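wait is this the right file?? whatever heres the structure
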């Protein structure tokens, strides 16, 4: 069976928590999705992190941003700003929908689903999904691949080190309840 690889735009809110950001980038690196974002999305991510994390510097986040863009080929969406007449409940989210349209994405992964109502996205053949629904979709399509991504992510953690189950507990606390339940059962086999 050939899997359809979705093109997805990650909203800043799902790139904010480091463990979730790492997982989402790794899913793209594994070829399970084509991940896209914009400089504006990365700017918003960095501003949010700096507001909450005084221990991090703008330079450290610039390095994170650079590594993300180097890791995921063709991740940066440009040429979307001309799409200004879009309708969304929060006008500040129009750039995300514009980027999704510009890159031909089928999905926006966001924790702010109410900002992306189906009625406003339908005409562009785009849907919005929570990170949990998104990861669950990928586990339904390719459980072993997603479990491998989680194992690799856990193995890369050094400060502090964590097992795959500890990483899953962190992702559960970030709201990936259904995905974590399925992945936990898979990793216990």
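ok assuming it is, sequence goes like this
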């Amino acid at each position: 069976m050939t899997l359809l690889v979705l093109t997805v735009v990650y909203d800043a809110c799902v790139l904010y928590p480091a463990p979730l950001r790492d997982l989402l980038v790794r899913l793209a690196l594994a070829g399970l999705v084509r991940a896209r974002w914009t400089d504006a999305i990365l700017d918003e991510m960095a501003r949010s992190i700096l507001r909450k994390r005084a221990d991090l510097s703008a330079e450290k986040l610039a390095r994170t941003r650079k590594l993300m863009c180097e890791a995921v080929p063709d991740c940066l969406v440009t040429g979307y700003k001309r799409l200004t007449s879009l309708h969304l409940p929060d006008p500040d989210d129009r750039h995300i929908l514009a980027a999704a349209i510009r890159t031909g994405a089928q999905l926006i992964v966001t924790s702010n689903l109410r900002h992306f109502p189906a009625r406003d996205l339908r005409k562009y053949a785009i849907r919005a999904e929570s990170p949990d629904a998104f990861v669950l979709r990928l586990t339904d399509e390719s459980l072993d691949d997603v479990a491998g991504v989680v194992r690799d992510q856990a193995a890369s953690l050094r400060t502090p080190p964590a097992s795959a189950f500890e990483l899953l507990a962190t992702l559960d606390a970030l709201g990936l309840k259904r995905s974590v339940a399925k992945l936990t059962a898979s990793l216990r086999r």
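The beta strands are 6-10, 33-36, 107-109, 127-129. so i think its the right one actually
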